[in-house]
Amino acid sequence: MLRGTCSNHSAGLKAERDACNFLIHNGFSILKQRWRSGFGEIDVIASKGLELVFFEIKSSKNYKRSFLLTERQKRRCANAALYFISLDNNQCYDSFRFDYIFVIDGTIEHIQNAFYIEDNNKS
Predict the structure, then answer these.
(1) Rounded Cα gap, residues 64 and 113, in angstroms
(2) Which CATH number fits domain 5-115: 3.40.1350.10, 3.40.50.40, 3.40.50.2000, 3.60.20.10?
(3) For the segment 55-110, what is each residue's pLDDT rounded down to a tens digit?
(4) pTM score, two decimals?
(5) What are the residue boundaries of the structural domains of the chain, listed by start?
(6) How far is CA 53 from CA 2, 4, 6, 47, 59, in A?
């Protein structure tokens, strides 16, 4: 039933390590990896300057399928991110965003602003 789960997990961890190395090489500071809350999990949380970035890391070879997060998954990620920001009272960031990093066959692709959350407080 669970055949392949361990190898998928190992591949996911390797993809996260590769993604973090890529981010560090590109000037990001890694704040958290596999951060979990009651709202959901965020693969990597990093900062660059005064911008906070929440990363979803994908290692699927099926690029198009892995690219799509459902609206529910996006909302869970957004709620977890907002919760993280609320806990980090000592830091001030000008902005935050949600990015994807794809690690496929040793190639890394970084997609900035992969999705947005709507401001439900708009008038």
Answers:
(1) 17
(2) 3.40.1350.10
(3) 999 886 665 555 567 888 889 999 999 999 998 766 788 899 999 998 888 889 99
(4) 0.83
(5) 5-115
(6) 33, 31, 28, 6, 19
